[in-house]
Amino acid sequence: MTENDEIKRLLSAIAFQNDQAAYKELFILLHNRLKQFGYAILKSNEEAEELVSDIFIKVWEKKEKLTTIESPLLYFYTTAKNLAFNRLQKQKRLQSLKPEEWLMQVNSIYLNPEELMMTAEMLNKIKRAVNDLPPRCKLIFKLVKEDGLKYREVAELLQLSVKTVEAQMAIALRRLGKCMHIELKTAAVRSLH
Amino acid sequence: MSYQEFFWVLFSKKLSNEATTSELKELENLIKDYPEWQYAIQNLEDLWKHQKAKDYGHEEDAYMLHIHRMKELGIPFGEMPDSVMPAKSKKRRILWYSAAVAAMLIAGFFLIGSFSAKNKKSQTPIAREVNEISTRPGSKSRVELPDGSIVWLNAGSKLTYNKDFGIDKREVTLVGEGFFDVTKNKEKPFIISTASINIKVLGTVFNVKAYSEDKQTETSLLHGSIEVTIKNRPSDKIILSPSEKLIVENRITSVEANGFKKNKEQIIRTTIPDINTLVSISKLNYSPADSSVAEAQWINNKLIFRDETFSDLATQMERWFNVSIEIKNEKVAQERLNGTLETETITQALDALQITTSFRYEKTGNKVIIQ
After folding, report:
1. What is the pTM of this model?
2. Which domains, from first to last, does chain A contain?
3. Predicted confidence (pLDDT) per residue in B143-156, tens digit
């Protein structure tokens, strides 16, 4: 079962059975990522926390309508973006509307090297490489790798083409690959017919 | 688009589950053409799959705050869970409780069941039966173990494991040289015993060279992490990092093993100052041209030697070509050599070595004499 299917199941339980346990499960499933996404735009922890709460108030109030959503994960991120934009506009922080200004943190790279079976040195290099990714590239990488969005969902959320998402993901992974000592030298000189 | 860019687009699509079947095939073909990419690919795949353990404590707090905020904003949500306990949910609790007790009882039966099954097993001699795979000098073999791990056995080697391999634990013994690609299983570590060392791994790729006639036992780690214990120093654990090679002197360990019975005190005195000579860790020999690792090239039918004495090389050539080699000139025996031998005959190999080293040889049947 994909995560979108899981979210759909929870949304149905909330809508048809007023299921509070499902509501809580959904909150716990999505809270962290949505807060991180909200923080990237709003750059304030309290505001990001409130943003998540606002999203889930909407979920409870509009629960009957949410059962027909095709791609619920995208719905949550789009709602987060729109609600965050409302806040920015009220505060006249218009500069922050541009995705290049968003500060996305990538968390899942900060790991125990023994668990991952890589040297600490290599992990540090990777950590640095991720931090040094251009903002938009890092945002896309995080949304795909950590938050589980599909390429087309990221494209729709950020109003980009799927090709751009593809290219940005390739850039991110190529930079990580460089940390593994191996740049694909032999292949660089050949070009694709 | 260059080959490189194309590779990274396909590879990131594969990781993100975005690749179509034909794209996966294309990627596979690209990788096949460039086996040296395997190292970075494997590491990136590990990194990608690895998920941070989730700590839900913080989310629970956030959820309570959210429910509190909804109440303050006057949004109807029904009773607060847990804070008020209506009769209906009390009943539910009891139900849940009895279900949990029932589940524990069932689990208990299973536990008892598996215990008695285990006891029976250890009494049956069938469980002790041993599988043995060996290779003759001059030949190699690829073995797939019941857990999906792959072992390539070099010439003149032997791998043994019990019939119950993989049920409770994964243990093998190795004499000779093996290249291991071990399937990940954190619950059941994979343990390799050789004459002088034990190696414990969870899942990784590495090469072990433990021929009884060699002076050293070598463990080369390509990626992942492994834990090595030296048999007569069981308290010392050595953790190897990727691209490292551990060398243990066989001769010294066997001297210690012999001495152990005679005089315990003497060993303590000799082993401690000897730690540096006994065990050493060095970097693997990467070939700068294609990033391949010399230590693992034998599986591609290449005998690679880096700064090795002729006499050490001769021992390897004996196994490789199934011949016996005798070096009569001590100066030639100590000569240090670098090179690669690839699917050549012993005569071709010796002719090639003559280009850089001056020696004469005579070959009669399977016997070579070097002067």
Report:
1. 0.48
2. 3-93 (1.10.1740.10), 104-188 (1.10.10.10)
3. 888 888 888 888 88
